[in-house]
Write a structure and sequence with these properties.
The structure holds 2 protein chains of 2 kinds.
Chain A (H helix, E strand, L loop, with lengths): L2 H13 L3 E16 L4 E17 L3 E5 L6 H8 L7 E6 L2 E2 L5 H8 L2 E4 L13 H10 L6 H14 L16 H13 L5 E5 L7 H18 L2 E5 L3 H7 L2 E6 L2 E7 H6 L4 H9 L49 E4 L2 E3 L5
Parallel strand pairs in A: 3-8, 3-9, 6-7, 7-8
Antiparallel strand pairs in A: 1-2, 1-4, 4-5, 9-10, 10-12, 11-12
Helix pairs in contact in A: 4-6, 5-6, 6-7
Chain B lengths: L13 E12 L2 E13 L4 E5 L6 H9 L7 E10 L2 E2 L5 H7 L4 E4 L13 H12 L4 H14 L5 H4 L9 H12 L6 E5 L7 H18 L2 E6 L2 H7 L2 E6 L2 E7 H6 L4 H8 L50 E4 L2 E3 L10 H8 L5
Parallel strand pairs in B: 3-8, 3-9, 6-7, 7-8
Antiparallel strand pairs in B: 1-2, 1-4, 4-5, 9-10, 10-12, 11-12
Helix pairs in contact in B: 3-4, 3-6, 4-6, 6-7
Amino acid sequence: MTTRDFIQERIDSLENREVLLDVQNLKTYYPVTGGFFKRVVGNVKAVDDVSFSIRKGETLGLVGESGCGKSTTGRTILRLLKPTDGKILFEGKDITKVTGSKLQKARRDFQMVFQDPYASLNPMQMVGDIIAEPILNYEKRNKKELEQEIKALLTRVGLPEEAYYKYAHEFSGGQRQRIGIARALALNPKLIVADEPVSALDVSVQSQVLNLLKELQIEFDLTYLFIAHDLSVVKHMSDRIGVMYLGNLVELASNRDLYREPLHPYTQALISAIPEPNTAIKKERIVLEGDVPSPQNPPTGCPFHTRCPMAMEACSKEKPPLKEVRPGHFAACLLY
Amino acid sequence: MTGNYTTKKTTPLLQVRNLQTGFKIDRKFYNAVENVSFNVDRKQIVGIVGESGCGKSVMSLSIMQLLPNGIGKIRGGEIDFEGLNISELSDKKMNKIRGKEISMIFQEPMTSLNPVFTIGYQIEEVILNHESISKKEARLRSIALLKSVGIPRADKIVNEYPHQLSGGMRQRVMIAMAIACQPKLLIADEPTTALDVTVQAQILELLKDIQETNDMSIILITHDLGVVAEICDEVIVMYAGKIVEKATVDELFNNPKHPYTDLLMKAIPKMDEDVEKLATIDGLVPSIINMPQIGCRFANRCPKAMPECLTVTPQLGEVEPQHEAACLLYDESWPAGEERQREGVPVL
């Protein structure tokens, strides 16, 4: 079977599956306080009206530059942050407002893999204990059985069984990320939010971790929300990709459509800006002017109009909604 | 040591010969850069790629003589800049070259600017250090420099502090500082790694422009093969402190010879291809303390390794015109190399 057939088959099989996560008009604002009484003087609109859904077994990639709100989106979905507005439906259940023990119960089904493998593991704990912690949080377990289970998990993510007795500092970056993945898998979750899981790793190690994540997805029927700033990594990992800019989802499409026919001018610029490790490809590059505006004081209308090479007058007045331009291909731009 | 500049048009701008740089760990020196030789021609952009810990930054710090005092030391070899061996220069003499003839930009635009001085002050400092002009002239020069690197409102920004600028703007300021005295060689150590892709594209474009207008040479150190393909003329691939491959950009990307380079390229996901599985390189770079003294340093991770790779140290040699690799597969003094490759190599 060629890679193309494989991908086609994957697309077909995903279409029939049920929606696992449905995010509707999600908003997360960080209050800005000032003055003597720490009054709220403004909001950083980190996530401003974002909607998407992920089917079971699918990988949705979120890309964007720093400060575009992709991590905040991931964290809000896991309810590590409180959403300001909107709805998060997980398997049809609304988890936007649940708190306390109900939230803890719900969280069993979604886990996270963090960016920094150096900071996200407790240096004082044995690796075995790090991985056991999420399990013991939910169940009482026989110690011996649990140890066997964790050792099996360590082997599965490509670490030796002895890793159980070691500490995080004894491992390299790639191996630590494997420990982080094992911890996320420990509870057999349905959804894994991977927030820049490979950006701290060297390319040779990066490819190992990416391959592992893909294998595990099929083996454990996992659903991923894959967050990264590197478009080629996201493209490799995802079935569909959402492009974020300044807290807004500006384009959402299948991985192929997005690369072949990017609709939003921002996506076009983003794709053209990636240096391609191939000298045969000489592409027309769209170099954007200036920097991303501050999310505390976003421009009116389309958030991208200040840097957009195709901006029209209407762009500064009206904020374009995300709309289906082609089947399954959404873009938020007045051009369409 | 002669202090004369023997500049000839034909000699390369920079010649590094058998450079060895070591670090002191527990009272013993270990080489982080081992027998590295390469040239940088005038107006050439040379890229140095490799994964973290391969010695690329240490090499650039050696050229600039900025190694940490007492810990890092050049232990052998020569660095000829326009015919002058700068590896033996005194600090005082080196200060005249650093910033004027050779300058450097660093990876972290956030930490390499001084937070308590204005942008203008920091640029003027460079100019006043090397040229005897008035403060007023220096101020005008720095405004012009800021304009030339594409900073808007340069006459205002010159009075601002680094924290008031974004990452991309700070990197532009760093570049303005680096080119303030029109150096002949600019060493850029991961200049775009901390930046977003759209900003990275701006900075690369800027570096290319400046290189052309100032007739400057650039050594670009990066781990991103994409950036190399974008702007370099020649590429050096380093692994564990040694050069494993050296070629023109087109040659290297179309025809990688060393197994390490080959794997490195296959390990990156590409935008124009769909691959189900990426190539991986198993194992880890040997640590500086346990570096194998003989044999190929990549042998323990190399899928094409032969038993000889552990006992014979491969030398960098020409495998094709303008293309050198350090691998026994291509070593002529090792006639078994190519035949073996054809017949299916006995894997280690």
